[in-house]
Amino acid sequence: MKKVSFAEFGGPDVLQLIDAEEPHAGPGQVRIAVRAAGVNPVDWRVREGQILKAHPIELPAGVGLDAAGVVDEVGEGVDGVEVGDHVFGEGSSTYAEFAVLSAWARMPEGLTFEEAAGYPSVVETALRIIREVGVQPGQTLLVSGASGGVGSAVLQIARDRGITVIGTAGAANQDYLRSLGALATTYGEGWVERVRQLGHVDAALDLAGSGVIRELVELTGDPQKVISIADLDAPELGVRFSGVAGSVPDALAEAAGLISRRKLHIPVEKSYTLAEAAAAHIDSQAGHTRGRRVVVV
């Protein structure tokens, strides 16, 4: 089978499309014929060797955590899923023609494989950081870097829970944030004052790692009211860095429910082939994404 792999840590140029042995489903797992794989910042952070404590790997290694596809092997002890089912979920080395998933759910009606591949890690992360930051219905949550996949999910999930959301993003994405129910403002000089004009901030999330931790602490008044998923130096300022996943099966079940109720929709901004994995990482690392990027197999 074809698979994207890397034999050393480094930039996008270390990614190679290789011929590899097919993986097989072990106990508690399923294997899918991959139709699409989600492109997440964690993919290139792992490729660079940044966050090996949360994601220990041995080289050479595959790339990718999220995927959607058709079940073609069911491991021992697995119930409730059959060969031929369309599922989305999380596993390993998902930039490939076949991948093993350790958590999955049936794809909601009407969702394409490309759309479904963009949800698993994104929704798990969004649900986790909303919980960890402790924001409650009736309060206001500030989301820095709100137009990407996690931001898109946070805005919609928070609004569904009765939380007011202020989102920051580039000028081109202001209408997009408003379409998701957020009060929107831009980055750049004076952004803290622009946020203050939109309302009091009870909690804040840093999704972009753009060096705004001090300002988020200033706006909330408490480093414990701020969480980052993108700035590895956040703990130096007393802010938690959240990088370890919670229950992915629970997150997938909640995602499926939200999608089915039309309370959650994350658009696919761009699709890439397996051979274009390096370009996908370059674009993901550049930021300014509106929704999701996926690799189509």
Q: Could you characterize the architecture of this molecule?
A:
Helices cover 28% and strands 27% of the residues. The chain contains nine helices and 15 strands. The strands form three sheets. Strands 3, 5, 6, 7, 14 and 15 form a six-stranded mixed β-sheet that branches. A six-stranded parallel β-sheet has the order 10-9-8-11-12-13, with helices on both faces. Strands 2-1-4 form a three-stranded antiparallel β-sheet, with no helix packed on it. The protein is globular and about 55 Å long. The termini are close together.
Q: Mean pLDDT across all residues, rounded?
A: 93
> How many angstroms does the end-to-end distance come to?
11 Å
Characterize the largest beta sheet: strand count, sense, and whether it forms a barrel. 6 strands, mixed
User: Are there runs of 5+ residues with pLDDT below 50, and where?
Assistant: none
Question: How would you classify the helix and strand content by structural class?
Answer: alpha/beta
SSE sequence, one letter per element: EEEHEEEEHHEHEHEHEHEEHEHE
Task: Give the helix level as a range of percent.
Answer: 25-40%
Question: What proportion strand?
Answer: 25-35%
Shape: globular
Tally the helices.
9
SSE layout and pairing:
Blueprint (H helix, E strand, L loop, with lengths): L1 E5 L9 E4 L10 E10 L1 H8 L12 E2 L3 E9 L11 E7 L5 E9 L6 H5 L2 H14 L6 E5 L4 H12 L3 E6 L4 H6 L3 E4 L4 H8 L4 E4 L6 H8 L5 E3 L11 E2 L6 H13 L7 E5 L4 H10 L5 E5 L1
Parallel strand pairs: 8-9, 8-11, 9-10, 11-12, 12-13, 14-15
Antiparallel strand pairs: 1-2, 1-4, 3-5, 3-7, 3-15, 5-6, 6-7
